[in-house]
Amino acid sequence: MKSHQVVGILITLVQLGSIVGFGLSLHTMAGVVIGTISGRELGLEMNVEELGGPGFMELSLEPYNPGFLEVTATFEIKLLDDLGVPLDTDYETLILKPKETQPMSLRLEVSASDVMRIVEGMETTLEVTVRLRTLYDLVGIANTIKLEVGETP
Amino acid sequence: MSRRSSAVLSALLTLVIFVGLPLYAPSQIPEEYFEMFSESGFELNAFVYQIAAIGLVASILTLVKGFASKASYIYLLAALSSNAMMLYFNLVTFSVGDVTKLGQVTITTEIPGGVNTMLLDMSLFIQLSFVVVGLQVIYTLLDFINARKEETKAKEEGLTPPK
Q1: Residue B22: strand pairing partners
Q2: What is the dihedral of CA B21, B22, B28, B34, to 10 degrees?
Q3: Cα distance between residue B137 and residue A7, in whole Å
Q4: Minimal Cα distance from A140: which residue of B?
Q5: Sheet with A124-134, side-by-side order of all strands
Q6: What value of ipTM does the predicted structure carry?
Q7: CA-to-CA distance for B89 and B51, rounded, in angstroms?
Q8: B75 and B9 in contact (C-beta within 8 Å)?
Q9: In 3D, which of B4, B2, B15, B24 has the Cα closest to residue B60?
Q10: Which residues have a Cβ under 8 Å from the Cβ of B141 and sit 6 or more positions away?
């Protein structure tokens, strides 16, 4: 076999590998994002157990990996005050094998004084981040949603 | 099929896929989507024109390669330029129009009550594109050396050089 034929075969193999890797990665990551977030309300609410006491927020998700590759998924929630300083943060990292689902729950705890500041009208931002890495952690996507927290009666 | 007719066909196909389609497709997209893309920092028109320009140059290079002798320096230059265009196309595609991002694209969109930021990390495919183009350059050079050898051999034997 001539040397340029060997190079030709190598080119084809790398190109095929790239196309297959690209397709599988996108399919896996899109599947996890769609299966976890889309079509459902985040429905995060601050709960206060006693008047003047601390508050908490809980986010429960059940990420599902419909793809053919393993995914490392990190879910993070943050509550930020008006200066962008985190009042509390929680995160969880899951390794989702193909066709696997795992329930997870994140909890933010807010001190009584911060709850008072929020009630008094402090602008607060809730940040929800989903980070996905696949194809041996070589390909990834990170999606961050920043929402202004409003007081509901 | 001769090398020339196959080059013409290939150039036409490249022209339709990479020039015709990208220039036609935006006319089918509603105006509000353009505004949405623009707000997210993605200039669809600029992206489309970049793809069309690459397609046009690629078509011309395909024609040049089809009509030039494989042992000529014009063919070598056209083939190496084709490899460079392929790399540029991959950079543009995986970086969604901004080649300086090298496959790390951030798309920000406004959603009711907040902002959604998406970061795509496709740098692996940029690295693989560099590997492929590097191999293609080696292939082009080896092919050129072979063609030169065959041409010299043919001249020595008093035969017509292969086209």
Answers
A1: none
A2: 170
A3: 10
A4: B121
A5: A86-96, A71-80, A124-134, A139-149, B114-121, B104-111
A6: 0.79
A7: 7
A8: no
A9: B15
A10: B76
List of E strands, chain A: 46-48, 55-61, 71-80, 86-96, 104-110, 124-134, 139-149
Q: Do A139 and B114 touch (CB under 8 A)?
A: no
Predicted structure pTM score: 0.80
Q: What angle, 0 to 180 degrees and rounded to 10, lies between the N-to-C axes of helices B44-67 and B3-15?
A: 170
Q: What is the pLDDT of residues A103-112, one digit of tens each?
A: 888 999 988 8
Amino acid at B115: V
Interchain contact A13–B (C-beta under 8 A): no
For range A24-32, the mean pLDDT: 92
A18 to chain B, any CB pair closer than 8 A? The answer is yes
Asked whether residue B148 carries a pLDDT value surpassing 60, the answer given is: yes
- Is B36 a residue whose pLDDT tops 80? no
CB-based burial label for A48 (10 Å; 0-12, 13-18, 19+): middle
Structural domains in chain A, sorted by start: 3-149 (2.60.40.10)
The three-state secondary structure class of B125 is helix
| Chain B residues inside the 8 Å CB shell of A79 | none
Q: What residue of B is the nearest CA neighbor of A6?
A: B139
More confident residue, A152 or B10: B10
Query: Are the Cβ atoms of A14 and B128 closer than 8 angstroms?
Result: yes
CA atoms within 13 A on the CB side of B95: 19
pLDDT tens profile A137-151: 999 999 998 988 765
List chain A residues with CB under 8 Å of B147.
none
Average pLDDT over all residues of chain A: 87
Question: What average pLDDT is seen over chain B?
Answer: 88
pLDDT one-digit tens code per residue, A60-99: 888 899 999 999 999 999 999 888 899 999 999 999 999 9
And the tokens for A42?
Answer: 């985040």
